[in-house]
Prior knowledge:
Radius of gyration: 16 Å
Structural class: alpha+beta
Number of helices: 5
Largest sheet: 5 strands, mixed
Distance between the termini: 43 Å
Number of strands: 11
Amino acid sequence: xxxxxxxxxxxxGAHEARPHTGGGGRRAGTPATxxxxxxxxxxxxxxxxxxxxxxxxxxEAAEAMGVSPDRVFKTLVADxxxxxxxxxxxxxxxxxxxxxxxxxxxxxxxxxxxxxxxRTTGYVRGGISPLGQRKKLPTVVDESATAHPxxxxxxxxxxxxxxxxxxxxxxxTAATLxxxxxx
Length: 183
């Protein structure tokens, strides 16, 4: 069995990375990290001290981890023709609602009610992960994800991200790849 490294959070608030091989026994974590571990997918957990005053969860994650905002992806929940749909787009861009609707064969899309998104996914806003959601929703990942060997998405709570390959993310979420982000 591969050895997992574990680092403790530093007092200066900087992020710590803990690589996981996905094998071995179940360890406590968020539903997202449990889903990755259960699937046997290699991933790295990045943790940092979340600042509630920061204006953008995604930009805060990119800054705290020292990762380009093009590689950090935010998870948004939209309503497409009455059905909740997950959109995963780079924090450096914005979700194109028309493109999202088209990607899932819909006509209209709008951002979902935050309370409904939280209740349906089982995560809080700013910590919604595309992985391990309470109810599996149709998911679309912006095709720009494939330009990177790894990307970061929320691990299921504010201040916690997982880094994994775009292929692993799309496979585990049964996602469609489509150009749904705009600068």
